[in-house]
């Protein structure tokens, strides 16, 4: 079943058309990756789903049309967005950052349970529980950003360049965690410049170029596609 569907979606920043009518689908249980060069429209695609940019066309989530809903309504309906550059709260502790992630959850018990659950994937966050976010390493901050996204118990996780700026060993760790999350049922839309590793863990992929989807296929097929190899895997 399709969990997220974009039908002929255009996105605009003032007069600039950043997405030129794209079609994209993420089925429940999938990891789908969106790859492309700088400025191709990857982040804009995620922002369109989250209601953070002006769009035309239709965006569906879990059987409901979400086009032009307010961002906080979209978030509460089950879409977690982990934006590029992590954007955790640097002066707040790990605990406080995670609590902020559960902004609309009233039950303290439920919040505690979800924090405990996040330690299964991110044991490092347990060790750093009372440390302020800004003093942690880039990899730890990325883990915190993802864990915070999970605090609303979303149906889909939209990850924007989670490997950016991380040392190779941490990049591997982040990709492993993404795969682990998916194996326990989380649906993931992954935006990455690191096309090779993204396609290694994804089921399907889309290639975006100057606001248009130019290719879409099973990730394994894209890995062997000449155009992809030359432009994105070199
Ligand atoms: P990157 O990896 O560099 O972030 P991207 O594929 O995510 O690239 P987007 O950030 O989606 O690209 O940008 C798509 C296009 O929209 C680019 O031409 C960019 O300059 C433009 N754009 C993005 N944000 C804005 C903005 N706030 N105002 C005006 N133009 C913008």
From TrEMBL:
GO molecular function, one term: ATP hydrolysis activity
GO BP annotations listed: L-amino acid transport
Keyword Lipid metabolism: no
Highest taxon of source: Bacteria
UniProt-listed Enzyme Commission number(s): 3.6.3.-
Gene3D superfamilies (alphabetical): P-loop containing nucleotide triphosphate hydrolases (3.40.50.300)
Xref: SMART domains: AAA (SM00382)
Keyword Hydrolase: yes
Catalytic class of the enzyme: hydrolase
InterPro entries membership: AAA+_ATPase, ABC_branched_ATPase_LivF/BraG, ABC_transporter-like_ATP-bd, ABC_transporter-like_CS, BCAA_Transport_ATP-bd_LivF, P-loop_NTPase
Keywords: Amino-acid transport, ATP-binding, Hydrolase, Nucleotide-binding, Transport
Cross-referenced Pfam families: ABC_tran
All residue ranges annotated as the ABC transporter domain in the record: 4-233
Family: Belongs to the ABC transporter superfamily.
PANTHER family attached to this UniProt entry: HIGH-AFFINITY BRANCHED-CHAIN AMINO ACID TRANSPORT ATP-BINDING PROTEIN LIVF
Annotated protein name in UniProt: Putative ABC transporter ATP-binding protein
Species in which this protein is naturally found: Paenibacillus nuruki
Organism phylogeny: Bacteria, Bacillati, Bacillota, Bacilli, Bacillales
């Amino acid at each position: 079943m399709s969990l997220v569907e974009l039908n002929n979606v255009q996105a605009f920043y003032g007069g600039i058309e950043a997405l030129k009518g794209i079609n994209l689908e993420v089925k429940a249980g999938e990891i789908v990756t969106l790859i492309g060069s700088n400025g191709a429209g990857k982040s804009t695609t995620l922002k369109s789903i989250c209601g953070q940019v002006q769009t035309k066309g239709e965006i569906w989530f879990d059987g409901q049309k979400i086009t032009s809903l307010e961002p906080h309504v979209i978030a509460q309906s089950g879409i977690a967005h982990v934006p590029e550059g992590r954007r955790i709260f640097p002066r707040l502790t790990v605990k406080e950052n995670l609590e902020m992630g559960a902004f609309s959850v009233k039950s303290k018990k439920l919040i505690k349970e979800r924090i405990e659950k996040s330690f299964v994937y991110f044991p490092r966050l347990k060790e750093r529980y009372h440390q302020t976010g800004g003093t942690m390493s880039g990899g730890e901050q990325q883990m915190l950003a993802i864990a915070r996204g999970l605090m609303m118990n979303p149906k889909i996780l939209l990850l924007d360049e989670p490997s950016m700026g991380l040392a190779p060993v941490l990049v591997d760790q982040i990709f492993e965690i993404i795969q682990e999350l998916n194996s326990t049922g989380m649906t993931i839309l992954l935006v990455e410049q690191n096309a090779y590793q993204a396609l290694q863990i994804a089921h399907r992929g889309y290639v975006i170029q100057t606001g248009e989807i130019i290719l879409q296929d099973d990730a394994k097929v894209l890995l062997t596609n000449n155009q992809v190899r030359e432009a994105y895997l070199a």
